[in-house]
Specification:
The protein is mostly helical. Helix content is about 70%, strand content about 0%. The longest helix has 28 residues. The protein starts with a helix and ends in a 9-residue tail after the last helix.
């Protein structure tokens, strides 16, 4: 059992190092050799844990989602505002996610399927959350399904703007302002 715990700890170390390297170089500029060097392994040693660069990438994305995971039924607008504040405290993670998301729109990118599946699930979760907050219609008249992709677009779009100009774009404040457009006048739902 101790060997398995060591192996899991090593995998976690590799995933953290991979996030750092991707944040510095982008996915396409990240090599298995650079990640291996960062954790004190040979490239062959790294392949023992992750057989391909693509397998490593998908594991990094899945790990990042685990850090932010909330049970589907527990999502609320105020938690999204808190998540936005939390993301503002970890620019490296947000930068890595955003860079990989941007790169994944190309046909051959290994993360394309991951992000496609992820956005289907995220939109569905956001629609459920909006329905729980507002019922079948938001104050604007939109259905939860109509508003969900807009909510996701605002969150991701604010991340890009904040990464490009953090001194000017206050991501948490801008997101709270967006919540007022949804009909939550104080930016904190009381439903």
């Amino acid at each position: 059992m101790a060997a398995r715990a060591r192996s899991e700890a090593r995998r976690a170390e590799i995933l953290r190092a991979t996030l750092e390297v991707i944040a510095e170089r982008g996915y396409r500029g990240t090599t298995l050799g650079a990640v291996a060097e960062r954790v004190g392994l040979t490239q062959q040693g790294l392949l023992h844990y992750f057989p391909t660069k693509e397998a490593l990438l998908v594991s990094v994305l899945e790990e990042r989602d685990q850090w932010d995971s909330v049970p589907d039924s527990a999502w609320r607008l105020d938690l999204l505002a808190t998540l936005t504040e939390y993301n503002a405290m970890r620019p490296g993670i947000v930068q890595t996610f955003s860079a990989l998301l941007g790169e994944s729109v190309t046909e051959d990118h290994p993360a394309r399927e991951f992000f496609t599946r992820r956005y289907v699930a995220v939109r569905a979760n956001m629609a459920r959350m909006l329905r729980a907050e507002y019922g079948e219609r938001l104050p604007s008249g939109l259905t939860p399904e109509q508003a969900a992709p807009l909510l996701v677009a605002v969150m991701d779009g604010l991340q890009y703007q904040w990464l490009l100009d953090p001194e000017t774009v206050d991501m948490p404040a801008a997101f709270r302002a967006f919540l007022t457009l949804l009909g939550d006048s104080d930016g904190d739902s009381d439903h």
